[in-house]
Amino acid sequence: MRKPFRVWQNIYAIGGDELTHPYDCTVYLVAGQGAHVMIDAGAGKSFDQMVKNIEALGFRPEELALVIATHRHIDHIGSLHKFREAFGVKVVAHQLDAGAMESGMNTGAEYYGVDYEPCQVDVRLEGASETLTIGGQDLHLVHIPGHTPGGLAVYVDIVGKRVLFGQDVHGPYFLPGADKMDAAYSLQKLIDLKADILCEGHFGIYEPEAEVRRYIEGFLFGLYT
User: Collapsing DSSP states into helix, strand and coil, what is residue 113?
Assistant: First the structure.
């Protein structure tokens, strides 16, 4: 297994298929002043290792304030309940995917052979965008339906660079609840953010802006072929 690593400034990768468990999406940590934010929570089999990775970077998991669940699929939400229960972390999700996280329906857990423990969503987003300020850091949340109805992207501006947590830019866009028209609109929205660094959910980190654009456009154009 790889060790957790810094992406840029106070942003770190703490989970993923090479960092914690093969089922996990890439899980990111945005470290703030006494309050930290996680982007997603993996598939549920690597809670202990993610906690160890946070500690290995010199941070206290007790200072986790939020977990932003980018969408309802099991590889992104499996450990939500454990983080909420262990550290009092508040869970943030879009209302269109929050019901699945709370009920356990339509998470895809059965495809992974994982037992998902439903988790309460503390903050439900309803609009197209919202900004949350945690630990002195502004986190901009953007509704990006397409892969799921309630997909979210997150971006932060840090020391002259825009870092985008686009998560599952790659889709797929044929699963139940997916919509290609919505996906095309959402992918263009991500391109228009002009991010310098893209933190994707499964397939790596892309920079600079021209490479971010090239990567996202590849999937946008693929929707029309």
Answer: coil
The beta strand positions in 98-151, using DSSP E, are 123-125, 129-134, 137-143
Give the end-to-end CA distance of the chain in Å, rounded to a whole number. Answer: 37
100, containing H or E segment? helix 95-103
Q: Do 17 and 27 form a contact (C-beta atoms < 8 A)?
A: no
Over residues 190-219, the pLDDT tens digits come to 999 999 999 999 999 999 999 999 999 999
Q: Are strands 123-125 and 129-134 parallel, antiparallel or unpaired?
A: unpaired
CB neighbour list of residue 211: distance below 8 Å, 6 or more residues apart: none
Walk across the sheet containing 129-134 and list its strands. 129-134, 137-143, 152-158, 161-167, 197-200, 205-206
Domains and CATH numbers, the chain: 5-222 (3.60.15.10)
At residue 126, the 3 state secondary structure works out as coil
- Write down the pLDDT at residue 167: 85
Question: Which tokens sit at 14?
Answer: 């703490």
Burial (0-12, 13-18, 19+ Cβ within 10 Å), 17: middle
Give the span between the Cα atoms of 35 and 135, in whole angstroms: 5
**Dist CA 97 CA 107 (whole Å):** 9
Residue 11, both tokens: 């942003």
Q: Give SS3 for 112.
A: helix
Instruction: Give the integer Cα–Cα distance in Å for 42 and 135.
Output: 23
